[in-house]
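Q: Please design a sequence for this.
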């Protein structure tokens, strides 16, 4: 399967998603959060770094659940450039 290149907007949303998750993780270790969410630490690291710009919905839902983040809040944050970094729990 050939994957189409990501648009600049998709890349930027991936970076914002990574920032939201990294900030919400706060003092918890990446390993702890990844294992609790049922994803590999490498996957979480790549998402937080913005290297996986379009992760699967179940992956984000699992991580958000572990971090006690509302998916609505994550969606709003990721799709609002001006609000980046100001996630309200």
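A: Design:
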């Amino acid at each position: 399967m050939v994957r189409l290149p990501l648009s600049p907007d998709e890349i930027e949303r991936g970076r914002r998603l990574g920032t939201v998750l990294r900030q919400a993780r706060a003092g918890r270790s990446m390993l702890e959060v990844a294992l609790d969410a049922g994803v590999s630490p490498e996957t979480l690291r790549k998402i937080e770094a913005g290297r996986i710009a379009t992760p699967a919905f179940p992956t984000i839902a699992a991580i958000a659940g572990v971090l006690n983040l509302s998916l609505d809040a994550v969606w709003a944050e990721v799709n609002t450039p001006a609000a980046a970094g100001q996630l309200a729990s």
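Q: Thanks. Anything notable?
A: The chain has a mean pLDDT of 88. The domain at 8-81 is CATH 1.10.260.40 (434 Repressor (Amino-terminal Domain)).
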